[in-house]
Amino acid sequence: MKKIIAIALLLAGALALASCANQNSKTVFADMFELSQKMLTADETLPIMMTVSSDEDNAEQKFKKHCDFDYSKVKSYFWSYEETGMPYEIAVIELKNESDSEALANSLKSHAKAIGADENKTEITSKGNYTALIICDQKDKVKEAFDKYVK
User: Fold this and answer.
1) For residue 21, is it within any domain?
2) Is there a domain that residue 4 lies in?
């Protein structure tokens, strides 16, 4: 009888520990369409932007037009850009593995430099599996929208 009680207490303790671990988890979730709307409307000075996303046909080819990062590591994305080629872009990439965030950030920095983005108007930030590229006049407002939405 003592063994059964001891096993039951051990299982109860393990279950309690597991539930505490889940509450402290760094799981991050964002709906990409809603996130894109929040971020794009945060800077009311943006020109007309074209948007591509991982929900479209040829999503990988559209992604590779903007970024040389390994697409097999991407879970989802949206990428908004000014269609005439001016350096205004807002993108969020959700990675399959958070450990790839630094490599993605480096790729985005190279992209921003290649398109001639003003460093004072450029922000690259990560939260969990999400990394954002922000190139616009009101980057702080757009980053704030990203930070508020991605939880």
Assistant:
1) no
2) no
pLDDT tens digits for 34-50?
999 999 999 999 999 99
Q: What is the count of structural domains for the chain?
A: 1
**Nearest of 56, 52, 55 to residue 67 by alpha carbon:** 52
On whether the CB atoms of residues 110 and 135 are closer than 8 A, the answer is no
Which candidate, 137, 140, 132, places its Cα nearest to that of 78? 132
Q: Which helix (H) or strand (E) holds 74?
A: strand 74-82
Q: From residue 70, give the alpha-carbon distance in Å to each of 10, 67, 74, 96, 117.
A: 44, 9, 8, 11, 22
What is the tens place of the pLDDT at every residue in 101-138?
A: 999 999 999 999 999 999 999 999 999 999 999 999 99
89: left (phi over 0), alpha (psi -120 to 50) or beta: beta
* Residue 77, domain extent: 27-149
pTM for this entry: 0.80
